[in-house]
Specification:
By secondary structure, the chain is an alpha/beta fold. It has a domain of 219 residues: FAD/NAD(P)-binding domain. Strands 1, 2, 8, 9, 10, 11 and 17 form a 7-stranded mixed sheet that branches. Strands 6-13-14-15-12-16 form a 6-stranded mixed sheet, with helices on one face. A two-stranded antiparallel ribbon has the order 3-4. Helix 1 crosses helix 2, helix 3 packs across helix 11 and helix 3 crosses helix 16. The structure holds 2-acetamido-2-deoxy-beta-D-glucopyranose (NAG) (7 copies). One 2-acetamido-2-deoxy-beta-D-glucopyranose (NAG) binds next to helix 16. One of its GO terms (molecular function) is oxidoreductase activity. Keywords: Signal. This is FAD dependent oxidoreductase family protein.
Length: 469
């Protein structure tokens, strides 16, 4: 980014350099030759790019947004310069996380429990009416121990979709039925639901996806603490990675087409702010959600289409809102009193938490399917109005609630049906690695957890990309 800006100012200052810039523009059709072309500069794509760069491989990252980072978003308050993370707030407490942050010169710290909000002082409200409910959350301790005992039955799940063959019936039971079968998990269900935000209707999802997202690491870190960046500004990872990768990142760029018919290389045509570019790479890494409508222009074969076509997804929305009328230290948690474990009926607001920035609340919203952004925003505002009527939002404010940030994490949580899981979907999916010089990473191949994505990429994808044969 810095060098890009510098170039523009030089071009304006020195007419003879403008010529150089124009020549570069005319060369827009020139072929970019790289070892690896990476589609998507989110958590997995950026990690792969940094590691490949450090291993002496040439890379190019194609990213549609104007920054790297995907689900990781940090808001910096212009008045106080304080930051708050929404989206990715904490990381598993693992050496690989410390090593990666260290590589990028980013200090880390153990995340204080308050970073994730505390239930102790929370007000529980009905997700549909905003009415206060007299509710005491159960002590999740015994339930988490029972849940951890279930997790221990599937030690390979944590590192990927490495499923026993045949796939155990328990893994494809809707999670609600799984809990009914192992009722000693019950007291942990609200906790599992909250740490598994984005799963949509958690009790209806195949148990596999719950066990993947709310992993042994997560259960452990609930008690020992997570890691976060020392400044509580997780987007630093992506700012530093962008500075490191420099011109090897094409921002605001989209794939127009791919051609993977050659034996030893792939061709990718990319629409970039400086025109269409052709990339010729030995290998292609697809690090965006592998949904068919994200892969328009890709030369998918029947097998790839059949697999990716099975994914369905949820919607997860994060936002920062001011003028809520809520007292500054109040946490609001949604429930539905008539539901099992009183989990809130979605779509709806999961929770509202104060941030370090006075007057700014972090509001999370979940849906079993994706919804239009404006609809979600309208629902959040309507919920805040209900909280005024029900007397939860007591502060006098003449101003209407206002979004300071809003991010749709869509498509979120790619899943397939229980039948597909049982008939070997994930074996077939993983068998795609390396076919047609194409490799894959991202949450559909692992789960929505930065550490687990980095660790999967490190051990199961990088060795394939580094292998020159
Ligand atoms: C804001 O904080 C960052 C560190 O998080 C610091 O680098 C920057 O200089 C600060 N900006 C101002 C205007 O104080
Ligand atoms: C809330 O419920 C608890 C336990 O059921 C009860 O002791 C308490 O009085 C109730 N509080 C209100 C305000 O209704
Ligand atoms: C929970 O119940 C299962 C049987 O349903 C049992 O095997 C397990 O030991 C129990 N776990 C705990 C932590 O109580
Ligand atoms: C990281 O992945 C490797 C390979 O799958 C695995 O052996 C290791 O246990 C993983 N590390 C953690 C902490 O999950
Ligand atoms: C591709 O590789 C196969 C096996 O190595 C070889 O027989 C074939 O001629 C190659 N095709 C092209 C177009 O290079
Ligand atoms: C880029 O390629 C697309 C598809 O071939 C084409 O429609 C578009 O006009 C091209 N853009 C430029 C700036 O050449
Ligand atoms: C929240 O702030 C109000 C007013 O400053 C105070 O009376 C109340 O005790 C605080 N509540 C909590 C849970 O800290």
């Amino acid at each position: 980014m810095a060098s890009f800006l510098k170039r523009i100012s030089i071009a304006i200052g020195f007419p003879w350099l403008r010529l150089v810039a124009e020549t570069a523009n005319e060369a827009a059709d020139e072929v970019i030759i790289r070892d690896v072309a990476i589609i998507g500069g989110g958590s997995s794509g950026t990690y792969a790019a940094v590691r490949l760069h450090d291993s002496g491989k040439s890379v190019v990252v194609i990213e549609k947004e104007d920054v790297l980072g995907g689900h990781t978003q940090t808001y910096r308050d212009p008045t106080t310069n304080k930051t708050t993370d929404l989206g990715v707030v904490v990381f598993d407490n693992q050496q690989l996380v410390k090593d990666y942050l260290g590589r990028l010169d980013i200090p880390w710290k153990v995340a204080p429990p308050s970073l994730l909000g505390s239930d102790a002082d929370a007000v529980y409200v009905d997700v549909h009416t905003g009415e206060v409910i007299n509710h005491t959350a159960p002590d999740p301790g015994p339930g988490l121990a029972a849940y951890a005992a279930q997790l221990a039955k599937y030690p390979h799940l944590e590192t990927g979709f490495f499923l026993p063959d045949p796939v155990p019936e328990d893994l494809v039971l809707p999670f609600g039925d799984f809990v009914a079968k192992y009722p000693n998990i019950s007291s942990a269900v609200p906790t599992i639901f909250n740490f598994g935000q984005g799963l949509g209707d958690t009790l209806y999802q195949p148990t596999l996806y719950v066990l993947k997202l709310v992993s042994p690491d997560v259960v452990r870190d609930i008690s020992i603490g997570w890691l976060t960046t020392a400044n509580e500004a997780n987007h630093e990872i992506y700012d530093k990675a962008l500075a490191l990768l420099g011109q090897d990142v094409l921002l605001r760029s989209r794939v127009i087409s791919t051609d993977r018919s050659a034996n030893d290389s792939v061709k990718v045509v990319v629409d970039t702010p400086s025109g269409n570019k052709t990339i010729q790479a030995k290998k292609l890494l697809v690090a965006i959600p592998q949904k068919l409508d994200n892969l328009i222009g890709f030369d998918l074969d029947a097998n790839e289409k059949a697999l990716f076509g099975q994914f369905v997804h949820t919607g997860y929305y994060t936002s920062l809102v001011r003028h809520t009328g809520l007292p500054d230290n109040l946490t609001v948690i949604s429930i539905s009193p008539d539901n099992p474990s009183q989990l809130p009926q979605l779509p709806g607001v999961y929770s509202i938490s104060p941030t370090v920035i006075a007057g700014l609340f972090d509001i999370k919203y979940g849906s079993p399917t994706s919804l239009p952004d404006d609809f979600v925003k309208g629902e959040i505002i309507a919920f805040l109005r209900q909280l005024r009527q029900s007397g939860v939002a007591t502060m006098d404010t003449r101003q209407e609630p206002e979004f300071v940030q809003f991010q749709a994490h869509v498509p979120f949580e790619l899943t397939v049906s229980p039948g597909a899981i049982q008939s070997g979907f994930y074996k077939k999916l993983y068998a795609l690695q390396g076919r047609r010089n194409t490799y894959y990473t991202g949450a559909a191949f692992q789960t929505h957890n930065s550490f687990m994505l980095w660790n999967y990429t490190e051990w199961h994808v990088l060795p394939l990309l580094l292998n020159d044969s």
